[in-house]
Specification:
This protein has two domains: 22-191, Anaerobic Ribonucleotide-triphosphate Reductase Large Chain (Alpha-Beta Barrel); 213-448, Anaerobic Ribonucleotide-triphosphate Reductase Large Chain. It is built from 14 helices and 13 strands. Strand 11 (417-419) and strand 12 form a beta hairpin. The longest helix has 30 residues, at 240-269. With 457 residues, the chain is of the alpha/beta class. The protein has helices spanning 4-14, 38-53, 56-67, 90-107, 125-140, 159-175, 221-234, 240-269, 290-296, 307-325, 343-350, 356-363, 381-398, 439-444; strands at 21-28, 71-78, 112-118, 144-152, 156-158, 187-191, 212-217, 273-277, 369-376, 402-409, 417-419, 426-428, 447-448. Strands 1, 2, 3, 4, 5, 6, 7, 8, 9, 10 and 13 form an eleven-stranded mixed beta sheet that branches. It has a two-stranded antiparallel sheet with strand order 11-12.
Length: 457
């Protein structure tokens, strides 16, 4: 049971530390909008999204005002768009994306996810149409976000799909060259994609979900950092175990607040409440950084030895605290390390302390993977595919979600700074070492088999 008095006292405690609900995402199943006529599909999409989402922003604002906790983003996520594209071509994909963009604008939401394809075992004609249309879709829309699942624990890694995305991602960036390749910031590839993730760019309403559902992402790295600083000021000789306990307690409090907000929004919309995703998702704002937490844990230069262990401690403590706070934890739920969206991580990358290889190691223990990584625009497609393959392998072998959101900046060179603006932030373009050295591996294609399940010591 959620005790409102306890949660209100928690809100008061955390109010000065900029607690927010990072996103309320309304998931909507649109499978019943499929059909042979593209114009009819688009009309049905707009009608259905408008019917479910027209009150979303207003309800979120009323609940936020009631408790004094801002809801930073209001978003939509549809069931995978590839199922609307069966029997259609690239033009239909562009039209459907435009309809989603229009409906999202009418509802007043920030982004709409679910322009998604599942390709872990093979690429169907419909998923192929969706993938090939991504440069047009992401360059011609403002709010549409896309994702492609390339691997899973049970299927292994579809290297044909990985290679194809290695070519598509630079094409998306080139199609938005005037915005430094920003279109690629709205595209994420996954291993083990969650079915209930409220965060973009990977939000999608997966199979088995309700007709409509509210999922909440609570975030709060600034709150965790403040709690750790406060505790260390009082007791400077704590152990890492003591600090993990403080993170766990803070995650518990934040999760309770997020669930209260989510349930009230769901009640206001008349749809079920789904999950709280308690991921620590940073923003470019100073003081809202996962990197700051790593420093507080004693790693002065992010990327130095110990960084991976610090992220592992943080991720585990967040999960434990959140799981105790709610029986409805889902999504990604852990720690995000998006370079451009985290001021401290961006600084570490610019200083050369945090390199691509160390980031990859850190993703083995966090939630998302290589997130918002700017790389030189002339990086070979096969190298991009190989980076993706490495990230997919981490997810498949460890039976966890991993993703890659890579931005090859057109004309950009390693060491230069790229600005994306807003919550997408800014970052240095990171050096990609040994570019071109993995081409033969990628060209073999086929599928990397799923790992053995019975011998997992």
């Amino acid at each position: 049971m959620l005790r409102t008095d306890e949660i209100l006292s928690t809100i008061q405690m955390l109010h000065a530390e900029h607690l927010d609900v990072r996103t309320v995402t309304l998931g909507i199943n649109v499978d019943d909008c499929a059909g042979p006529d593209v114009g009819l599909i688009c009309r049905k999409l707009r009608q259905k999204l408008t019917r479910f989402a027209r009150e979303l922003v207003g309800v979120c604002d009323r609940v936020a005002a009631k408790y004094g906790v801002p809801v930073t983003n209001k978003r939509l996520a549809i069931s995978a768009a590839e199922f609307l594209l069966a029997g259609h071509g690239e033009g239909a994909a562009v039209d459907i994306a435009a309809a989603l963009d229009s409906a999202a604008a009418e509802a007043g939401v920030d982004l709409v996810g679910g322009f998604t394809a599942y390709c872990e075992k093979g690429i169907t004609p419909a998923s192929g149409v969706l993938i090939d249309a991504l440069p047009l879709v992401l360059s011609r829309t403002q709010r549409v976000c896309a994702s492609v699942n390339l691997a899973s624990r049970k299927a292994g890694i579809n290297m044909d799909a990985v290679a194809r995305m290695g070519r598509i991602i630079p094409a998306v960036a080139a199609a938005t060259a005037e915005r430094r390749g920003f279109g690629a910031a709205k595209l994420c590839v996954f291993a083990n994609i969650p079915q209930d993730n409220p965060f973009m760019a990977g939000a999608v309403l997966g199979p088995g979900e309700p007709e409509a559902v509210v999922n909440v992402g609570v975030s709060g790295p600034g709150v965790v950092a403040s709690a750790l600083r406060r505790r260390l000021e009082l007791q400077p000789h704590l152990t890492l175990g003591d600090l993990a306990e403080e993170i766990k307690i803070t995650a518990f409090r934040v999760t309770r607040v997020g669930e209260l907000i989510g349930r009230e929004v769901a009640d206001g919309l008349g749809v079920p409440f789904g999950i709280v995703d308690l991921s620590l998702a940073p923003t470019p704002a100073v003081g809202d950084s996962v990197g700051d937490i790593i420093r507080i844990l004693g790693v002065d230069r992010i990327g130095a030895p110990g960084s991976t262990a610090a992220v592992a401690l943080l991720t585990d403590a967040v999960k434990k605290g959140g799981a105790f706070a709610s029986s409805s934890v889902g999504g990604l739920s852990g720690t995000f390390i998006p370079v451009s969206e985290d001021a401290a991580l961006a600084q570490a990358a610019a200083a050369g302390h945090l390199v691509l290889e160390k980031l990859e190691a850190m993703t083995s223990v966090c939630s998302v993977g290589l997130d918002m990584i700017a790389i030189p625009g002339d990086t070979p497609a096969e190298t991009i595919a190989a980076i993706i393959a490495d990230e997919m392998a981490i997810g498949v072998i460890n039976n966890k979600t991993t993703g890659a959101r890579i931005i090859p900046v057109p004309g950009g060179k390693a060491g230069e700074k790229v600005e994306f603006g807003g919550l997408f932030g800014s970052a240095p373009i990171m050096e990609v070492r040994n570019a071109g050295a993995s081409a033969g591996f990628v060209r073999f294609g086929g599928r990397i088999p799923a790992p053995i399940q019975s011998l997992n010591d």
